[in-house]
């Protein structure tokens, strides 16, 4: 007895995706830029500083060549990033 296709797609998390509903999937990085990760602690602190000075999420994602969700994750984890900075300075 095998696993049905529906059960397999539910396990993989691919059931009901955009392609199956006839919509086009959007790439994570824009076509004019390559994908890049903000892993460096200094870059994360710079992003937080730019945000404090009023720079927009979209502008930062273009500057660092990342998807806007990467900037959103930094915003979401801002307290942890700043706390880690304080711990490293001690």
Automatic annotation (TrEMBL):
Signal peptide: none annotated. Gene3D superfamilies: Homeodomain-like. InterPro entries: Homeodomain-like_sf, HTH_Psq. Its main location: nucleus. Residues 43-83 form the HTH psq-type domain. It is found in: Nucleus. One of its GO terms (molecular function) is DNA binding. It comes from the Eukaryota. GO terms for cellular component: nucleus. This is HTH psq-type domain-containing protein. It comes from Aromia moschata.
């Amino acid at each position: 007895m095998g696993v049905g296709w529906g059960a397999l797609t539910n396990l993989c998390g691919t059931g009901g995706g955009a392609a199956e509903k006839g919509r086009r999937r959007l790439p994570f990085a824009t076509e004019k830029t390559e994908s890049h990760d903000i892993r460096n602690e200094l870059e994360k602190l710079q992003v937080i500083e730019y945000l404090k000075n009023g720079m927009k999420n979209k502008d930062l994602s273009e500057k660092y060549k990342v998807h806007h969700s990467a900037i959103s994750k930094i915003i979401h984890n801002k307290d942890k990033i700043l706390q880690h900075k304080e711990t490293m300075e001690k």
